[in-house]
Write a structure and sequence with these properties.
2 strands; about 50% helix; about 15% strand; alpha+beta; two-stranded antiparallel ribbon; about 120 residues; single chain; globular
């Protein structure tokens, strides 16, 4: 039996992903809408990205959102969506025959209309 003082045992590398795969989603919002959305997120004690994720996970918003016109100046809003959520959102938009960016502007405008200053999202 031979042994070596230089033998080392290596564990197999952990190939499980440490973070969920995401897709970057960017939409241009009218400046006033972006400012109101930022203020709402701050009042809710959350980030705009998390508020956005909650908004598109809520199936009721797709039924009530109306396209909001894109006025200049605009401000860009970007969020990384989990791959599964992005795919579900894309399928929902295909079924509704809407562009994602147009729907998002309308949904954010509707959300801001529906929310009162002191309201807290669940």
């Amino acid at each position: 039996m031979l042994t070596s003082q230089f033998s080392t045992f290596h564990d197999e590398p952990d190939m499980t992903p440490t973070t969920e795969e995401t897709i970057r989603f960017t939409v241009d919002l009218p400046l006033s809408l972006h400012q109101q959305f930022s203020a709402l997120a701050e009042r809710q004690g959350t980030s705009k990205a998390e508020l956005f994720r909650l908004m598109i996970e809520n199936p009721q918003l797709g039924a009530i959102a109306q396209p909001a016109p894109l006025r200049r100046p605009t401000k860009r809003f970007t969020v990384d969506l989990p791959l599964a959520l992005h795919e579900a959102f894309s399928i929902q938009m295909i079924r509704q025959h809407q562009k994602k960016a147009v729907w998002v502007r309308g949904a954010i405008a509707q959300l801001l209309k529906d929310m009162k200053d002191d309201a807290v999202m669940p």
